[in-house]
Amino acid sequence: MDLIDAHVHLYPIAVNRDPVGWATEHGEAHWAQLCTRKRKDGAPVQAFPTMAQLLFDLNAAGIRRAVLMGWYWERHATCVEHNRFYASCLQAYPTRFAAFATVHPDAGQKALDEIRRAKDAGFCGIGELSPHSQHVPLDEPVWHRILELAAELDMPVNLHVTDPASRPYPGRVDTPLADFIAMAKDFPKTNFILAHWGGGLAWAEAAAGLRNVWFDTAASPLLYGPEVWKKGPIGRVLFGSDYPLMLYPKTGAGHGFADLLAEAKAAGADDSIFRVNAATLLGIE
Ligand SMILES: [Zn+2]
């Protein structure tokens, strides 16, 4: 099978070795809160696999390619470090990975330069960004420049979206859904991938008909029941896991690639969701 997982996170060895210590040292408290926390039963929300482990897990699940997503870091230096790491992954396995570059808008021109550098290194998108978490208001001109450059370089922008109806968890950030609709309308030449089913926008009237908006399914089992696979607009949905997040904490299925694929297939997800939409949008066939 030639499946594409359009939403995977991977970190350099320095992060994996001591995620909490690394985050403290690098001023990335919000990431630490989201990614190094433990559930009530004491189990970590995610593991910190190496590139080799990711490849092993992809092979076991029959996933051909993983799209490596950056993170909405709080510091420009971290964005650069993460982008360099993904560039090395791309270089090592150009047919197994694709990558999205991350930036912090506070860096201004440096953020724009970083996007151009990433494009030259073979990155195919920008994200996962979260304007609401990165503390730069959406009406700041720097966002406009980033979104316009994304359109110019044909790099879709993946944005983290929180469903307003979702239950609270430590580090949860409110992301008003109307902001994403406004963004898509204000930047019609920029393609957006709204993560996590767009926080419900995938099946909302407000987003219907927006030609520059796609959705990914990252973390779906933690947020929604299997019925959502039937609800999204099929031509606009990209299969994504949010690996290495533990998707099925109650069953102990680990990162849960196999269970997620089974859930999606049982609900009728087809080749367009598993491969075609991502391949077409990202140009990575
Ligand atoms: Zn993610």
Automatic annotation (TrEMBL):
* Entry annotated with the keyword Transport: no
Q: Which residues form the signal peptide?
A: none
Protein name, entry field: Amidohydrolase
PANTHER family xrefs:
2-AMINO-3-CARBOXYLMUCONATE-6-SEMIALDEHYDE DECARBOXYLASE, ISO-OROTATE DECARBOXYLASE (EUROFUNG)
Please name the GO terms that the record assigns under molecular function: carboxy-lyase activity; hydrolase activity
Q: Name one GO cellular component term.
A: cytoplasm
Q: Which organism is it from?
A: Oleiharenicola lentus
Tell me where on the tree of life, at the top rank, the source sits. Answer: Bacteria
In this chain the Amidohydrolase-related domain maps to 4-284
- What Gene3D superfamilies does the record tag this protein with? Metal-dependent hydrolases
Could you tell me the keywords of this UniProt record?
Answer: Hydrolase, Lyase
What's an example Gene Ontology biological process for this entry?
secondary metabolic process
